[in-house]
Amino acid sequence: MQKNQVRKAVIPVAGFGTRLFPATKVVKKELFPIIDRDGRAKPVILAIIEEAISAGIAEVGIVVQPDDREIFEDLLKNPPKKELFKKLSPQNQEYSRYLEDLGSKITFLLQEEQLGYGHAVFCAKDWVQDEPFLLMLGDHVYASDIQKSCASQLLDVYEQVNQSVVSLTTTPAEILHTAGCVTGVWQELNSILEVTQLYEKPTIEYAQQHLHVEGMAENEFLCIFGLYLLSPKIFDFLAEHINQNLRERGEFQLTSSLDRLRQEEGITGYVVKGKCFDTGLPDTYRQTMIDFRNF
Question: Which chain regions cross the lipid bilayer (predicted)?
């Protein structure tokens, strides 16, 4: 894989948010509010975009349903009406201008049919073109343990290894069924891993037999943290699955294409120095509201 500067991030937000129904019948889950460390109430999607920008990303592509484009544009492209703007505090007026600048870096990409996460990623193909890109989940926010943001850490590892990188976190066995899991061989202990297998939502029994990583506790595993730095080659495998109608659980998924990418180009895993906050389930969203500001 030829090394290129990573300029673009992709955030798919075209799902239905069924796990947060009926709230998501009226508000997209990516627009649910969280409180950041400055005490500012903001929609989840904004915190994700800011994470990308913190890593030096210049352009962000947001994959949306056609019917949802207007509401995201209203947040990221349209300033508030004059009468509302005048009522904002000076700090919020400044933040409103910042939002307009941020909006200039946003492109909306349409997913006409909701055919799975892998399909949503594929909808960014023409916009990404032949560049590596940062892929971010639309319902996870991040807080770093160190000065560099979580996304910045991932880009740094890409610069070192010159191949696709998946972010990892240590996960207890009892929640493996909710996550993508990997195994591999440590290149730097508890930090950088040569990935040898990716597996979506394994059972505990499968993980114990096939996915345990040397040196880790018996009931701890490495799961996806929510950030990916991917070669554009991923689109070839996604296209193949879509063209051949190769679905998993009725949809086109990402993980099987990631494993194809691993076989052809190699994938590095990186254990992020930070915490990932999930906003996609009622209980995890509630906990994120409590924890995110104070982390």
Answer: none
Residue 88 to residue 186: CA distance in whole angstroms: 51
End-to-end CA distance of the chain: 36
Residue 179: domain span: 8-294
| 2 domain residue, yes or no | no
- CATH number, domain with residue 185: 3.90.550.10
Name residues of the chain where pLDDT drops below 70: 1-4
| Per-residue pLDDT, 267 | 97
Q: How much is the pLDDT for 248?
A: 83
pTM over 0.70: yes
pLDDT tens track for 109-120: 999 998 989 999
H helix intervals, the chain:
44-54, 69-76, 82-87, 90-103, 117-122, 125-128, 150-161, 204-210, 234-243, 255-265, 282-291
Residue 223, domain member (yes or no)? yes
pLDDT score at 1: 43
Q: What's the number of domains the chain is made of? A: 1
Looking at the domain assignment, is residue 183 inside a domain? yes
Compute how many other C-beta atoms are within 10 angstroms of the C-beta atom of residue 67.
8
3-state SS, residue 200:
strand
- How confident is the model over 126-177, as pLDDT tens digits? 999 999 999 999 999 999 999 999 999 999 999 999 999 999 999 998 888 8
Strand partners, 186: 193
**Rg of the chain (C-alpha set):** 19
DSSP secondary structure string, 140-188?
A: EEEEESSSS-HHHHHHHHHHHH-SEEEEEEEEEGGGGGGSEEEEEEEEE
